[in-house]
Amino acid sequence: MLRKIISLFIVSLSLEINAVQMCEGESETSATSQFSIDNGDAFVVDTVTNLAWARCVVGQTWNIDTEACDGEPLRLTWKEALQQANSLVIDSRTDWRVPNIKELATIVERKCVSPAKNLVVFPGAPDGRYWSSTPNTSASAMTESWAVGFYNGRIDSQDKMSDFYVRMVRYAE
Q1: N or C, which end of the chain has less CB nearby within 10 Å?
Q2: Secondary structure (3-state) at 16
Q3: What is the C-alpha to C-alpha distance for residues 81 and 148, in angstroms, rounded to an integer?
Q4: What is the distance between the alpha carbons of residues 13 and 37, in angstroms, rounded to a whole number?
Q5: Is 11 contained in some domain?
Q6: Residue 84 binned pLDDT confidence (cut-offs 50, 70, 90)
Q7: Smallest Cα–Cα separation from 98: which of 59, 131, 74, 142?
Q8: Model pLDDT for residues 119-154, shown as the tens digit of each residue
Q9: pTM of the predicted structure, to 2 decimals
């Protein structure tokens, strides 16, 4: 049984590594043109929502020379994600926070899967689930919070003790 589980894990890992983004249709929900991108900055500004998004997920840093994210993305519990926002500094800015579910949903590219994100704006980020700051108030004992799976764009309520990625946001100046 253990051998079967390990084999399934290896197969799923290889599928994740070899996944190629698939997009259908012409209508973009997270078009590159709606973002103000300065490759010298570690963040982009969504000109529709006036939100500044970190280009990299927590644990990674923006590399100006390669225009990509370096480092290992961290998987955090919901509480750890909220705590991380209190000490995070990106481009000398300290007002970063975990986005609420409505904000996080604005950067999902709904015409694409594997991943459901704009690869020009957010290069190299993992395709897994990302925490929002929005708790699920209908879950018993409020033990769940809302997250987005950037492999398919699906919004789900998840146990707050689960380990997911975090992309920080702040209000643009």
Answers
A1: N
A2: helix
A3: 14
A4: 32
A5: no
A6: very high
A7: 131
A8: 999 988 898 999 999 999 986 778 999 999 999 999
A9: 0.84
